[in-house]
Amino acid sequence: MFEIKGKTAVVTGGTSGIGLATAKAFLEKGAKVVIAGRNEERGAKALEELKAVSPDVVFHKTDTSDPAQVKGLIDFAVKTYGSVDIMYNNAGIANFLPVDQMSDEDFNKLISINLTGVFYGIKYAAIQMEKQGHGGAIVSTSSIEGTIGDPNLPSYNAAKGGVNLLTQSAALALAKYNIRVNTVNPGYIYTGMINEKTMGEDGMKRLESLHPLGRLGKAEEIAHGVVFLVENEFTTGTHLYIDGGYTAQ
């Protein structure tokens, strides 16, 4: 089993929701954690919460759509804690526009963060892990929406489907370095993006009904899956669906 204790983990989109829950899970396992996000105020708030778990956590402002900033994030982690052993590419955005109503700008913005940003995260983490010479674990947040179609999520579907295949290709290329690459694929999770305020009560009930278990998932349940993908040393190139039975239908 891959030992998380004492390792350095980088978590993009780590200031809220699934990323924050996963950063907490890593800290509870004894890791040193760098959380990254675009908003410094949210970063400071997240740090306050995480430092109650462990002092071994820092924030680095990062726009994952910018390769220089992602490389800078990896360099910062190495400078701060000496290595990068775990990379969790979790940063992402969503929009709810059908293809005939979506602007080129909207499409390209989502792809730049949700797909291209994951590529940068895998690339620069892998380069560092190769230098270190003792392998590592890379996990990216995909989605059930990377497997199914949705009339209101064409760019999100495209990005998450791309993340799935990017992950499989990277896993094959990096296996010789003992670098494992996987995705966690959540169903709808109760977060700052999906809640009564953003979706409305009727919208939430509709989403809950899509899951055979009759509810939305919790961020902590996804974090548990990420920890599994990091710890299990015979798992690479796979997609872990944590979706309340959504894709079993």
From TrEMBL:
Record keyword Cell inner membrane present: no
Keyword field: Lipid metabolism, Oxidoreductase, Steroid metabolism
A UniProt-annotated Pfam family: adh_short_C2
PROSITE patterns, alphabetized: ADH_SHORT
One GO term (biological process): steroid metabolic process
Oxidoreductase found in the keyword field: yes
EC number: 1.1.1.391
Catalyzed reactions: 7alpha,12alpha-dihydroxy-3-oxo-5beta-cholan-24-oate + NADH + H(+) = isocholate + NAD(+); 3-oxochenodeoxycholate + NADH + H(+) = isochenodeoxycholate + NAD(+); 3-oxo-5beta-cholan-24-oate + NADH + H(+) = isolithocholate + NAD(+); 12alpha-hydroxy-3-oxo-5beta-cholan-24-oate + NADH + H(+) = isodeoxycholate + NAD(+)
GO molecular function: oxidoreductase activity
PANTHER family from the UniProt entry: BLR0893 PROTEIN (PTHR24321:SF11), DEHYDROGENASES, SHORT CHAIN (PTHR24321)
Family of this protein: Belongs to the short-chain dehydrogenases/reductases (SDR) family.
Protein name: 3beta-hydroxycholanate 3-dehydrogenase (NAD(+))
Lineage: Bacteria, Bacillati, Actinomycetota, Coriobacteriia, Coriobacteriales
